[in-house]
Amino acid sequence: MALNTTPSVTELDYDRQAEFKAFDETKAGVKGLVDAGITEIVNHGIPSSVLEEMIEGVRGFHEQDTEVKKQWYNMSFREKPPVVFHSNFYNAPVPGWRDTLICHMAPNPPNHHEMPPICREILMKYSDEVQKLSVRILELFSEALGLNPSHLVEMGYAEGLSMLGIYYPPCPQPELTIGSQKHTDSTLFTILLQDHIGGLQLLTNGKFECASHRVLSKKVGPRISVASFLRVPSTQSYKVIEPIKELLSEENPAKYRSTTMEEFTKYSMAKGLNGVPTTLHYQI
Ligand SMILES: O=C(O)CCC(=O)C(=O)O
Ligand SMILES: [Fe+2]
User: Which of 70, 266, 265 is nearest to 187 (CA)?
Assistant: First the structure.
């Protein structure tokens, strides 16, 4: 789901009434919801000043002196420390032409001094807004699946929030590299805030399926984006991840086997960004 700071012609006001009418008529409302354009939201309720400040905060961090950024450098993608900065040289066949500030904002937000001074205020403000918005989105998802509106929230899907502040520098030879490898996100959903440069390509889409996507490198830039990943917190390692029981029946048996949050996170990290959805590993 993308939040753009500048209006685009593909934007669509989400019409809840019409959507639920379509859901009632087709009994397949989830697909309708996705096809109706909820992949790009405008009436999200987050003030545009907050969106702009967030983009500028990420720019400010990455455009600091290397000596200042160095203290945040760490190759770990795990929960501790809560805020790290790294180049995209982790488990991917080709490194992405990007630098990333990783901030684990929920369920245990970093302390004040654990966030870079240049963007700590806006990180807190923006993550609050994203969490509020994600509850509303999960309520819509639940209703669209024919569940109680609070179902997905109660399952803990709004509890974990990791945010990436990504900086794609201009690339002199973009044809030789890529900004972000083709991949799917291993989280329930992602709210993406991007600046006017663009470059994100959605490669597939379907009924609540993982959308395969990548970001091209460009000669112009930098391009700045903030990806907010909503998930069950990986700290709840014991938690069982499995198809929603209320949606299963004899005609519609489970298509995925159960796993734990710990196993899922481990597998997803070990697999890396190879373009293959993590969920494929769990398909029955
Ligand atoms: O920068 C973007 O637009 C997307 C980044 C992304 O897909 C990711 O980090 O998972
Ligand atoms: Fe992604």
Answer: 265
